[in-house]
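COURSE: Structural Biology Practicum
ASSIGNMENT: Worksheet 4, Part C
STUDENT ID: 0417
INSTRUCTIONS: Below are two proteins. For each, the amino acid sequence is given first, followed by its structure token string. Answer the questions at the end about the second protein only.

PROTEIN I
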Amino acid sequence: MAAVVGLAGGVGIGIGPASAHVTVNAPGATQGGYAKLAFRVPNERDNASTTKVEVNIPVETAIASVSVRPTPGWTATAERSKLTTPLRVHGSDVTEAITKITWTAAAGSAVKPGEFQEFEVSAGPLPEVDQIVFKALQTYSNNEVVRWIDEPATSGAEAEHPAPVLKLAKTGAADASVANANLNLASSTDDNDSGNPVGIAALAVGLVAVVLAVVAWRRSS
């Protein structure tokens, strides 16, 4: 996956402070489920490239199965840690889990100024918690290290270097949402059919045909 450059009319778009954080995205992620996590890493510097990204998975919210999708031009390494409390998965105890993933760029593959890169991970079962905080480190070609490790504040105020946070819906919440959406769609379709001009026209034609048939029968008799 090549790094992506933001363009508008051929001109590079600068990344503002509010949009330049390292983030994680996993649509539909639920507690106890599996999901594809995409860590987006934008380059904030004008004079350096991103050469290494480290993402930490907290032991207290450990994930039993973690696999990394290969990113062209980058090498991924994983570190495992022993778990104080084993995870029970499919009837077996998992006593260690991946707690750190490091992506390192090969020559010529670093994320350049004005670009971003996404690193994908398949993970599950996700823990039974409302959110997972993935603290991350971003290393630049000038040896600068940006520590995206600030946890969410209870006040809701955004920190200077917020850690990527993945929100997890409760089990069944996503299915319920889809079911409700389908129910609303079905109701909408029924309502639309009742007022459909084509349907009304067809009904009118049918009534006319019945009337003509009755008139013809009376004349013949």
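PROTEIN II
(use this one for the questions)
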Amino acid sequence: MAENSGADSSSAGHIPEYIPSKHVPLTDQLEKDKDDESLRRWKESLLGELSLDDKGKRGDSAVEFSAVRLVVEERDAIALPLPKDGEAVALPASFELKERCRYRLQFEFAVANDVVLGLTYVNTVFKDGVQVDTSKVMLGAYAPQAKPYVYVTEEETTPDGEDVRGKYTAETKFTDDDGKVYLTFSYSFEIKEEW
């Protein structure tokens, strides 16, 4: 009897983890088939307003975040201070949220030099040093372009009840399919009964 090579491993209750293919830098992709006019035009159409001559003119990082905001219903947006050039923020951002308030997160970022695949937001929340929540949101794949991208998460609601009131800390990071970390920062917040 032939051994199953894993082609249908889901029938045994095991689903293999997705492994992305080897990363090929944008500069290498642009050099391939450079003498083929139709392929060159197609690649230019994928890059949008970014000229083929612009590649590599921004910083080394493929993703640079300019803003992370907490957009709360009936309140001004809260901008979280972000570290610049790998430096830590002096004090973590701190803010208050009311029980049952609705909010969204808004990320503003630029992509330079290369296509970013599987950009992911991971947020881990702690109360009294104990992990109470982890969120992971796949933001998607992004091509380099001169204009920043803006991504807004789905609406969420803060929990309610006496046991959830109090102070929290959180650690946030943005990664891609290759495991590259583009941004990490911490912040703190407090959930209160009223504003």
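ANSWER KEY EXCERPT:
Q1: The helical segments are 26-31, 37-47.
Q2: The domain at 63-192 is CATH 2.70.50.30 (Coagulation Factor XIII; Chain A, domain 1).
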